Amino acid sequence: xxxITVLAFVLLALAKPLFASGxxxxxxxxxxxxxxxxxxxxxxxxxxxxxxxxxxxxxFDARADFTNALDxxxxxxxxxxxxxxxxxxxxxxxxxxxxxVAYMSPKGIAQIMEGRQPSPAxxxxxxxxxxxxxxxxxxxxxxxxxxxxxxxASMKQEEGFVLNKSETPFAPLAWDYYEALKPAxxx
Length: 187
Hints:
The protein is mainly β. It has one domain (32-37, 49-187). 11% of the residues lie in helices and 45% in strands. It contains 2 helices and 7 strands; from the N terminus they run αβββαββββ. Strands 1, 2, 3, 4, 5, 6 and 7 form a 7-stranded mixed sheet that branches. A hairpin with a 6-residue loop joins strand 4 (123-131) and strand 5. The longest helix is centred in the N-terminal third of the chain and has 13 residues, at 2-14. The chain starts with a helix and ends in a 23-residue tail after the last strand.
């Protein structure tokens, strides 16, 4: 019996989880509204007035040498509704001040606001969690405003409004600044 206990202890020590909770830390969650990027093309396209996008940027640290994939879950409590987005980053190398980003489009915001202009009070909170693909327990979590626990867990969640970078006109910008996205259709 003693040999089994020692063997079990050794196996547990050797079987360190791939994602230990101390391997990742979200340092900041920043939210801002920015205009649609403008590009010069030839021939010129119709001039339009840039609209405001909600940009949610996450700054995080990775202490693991290399991570195949991480799921970032964005919870945006905006206009008394909870919007969620899921973004998978791949090929994350150990580093300090790494970045993930999500967006809400001007047309999505207009639909949510039913034509009204949003005010700062309409954005009540944003939380982001990092988890291992296929595992629901987060390894890191942080909110834009002070909050306790998983405040979003008991709320009705709406998908489709929180977009990853490749689904926006920001896709070609700051390519090396943000962590790589899992390609669409990849398993």
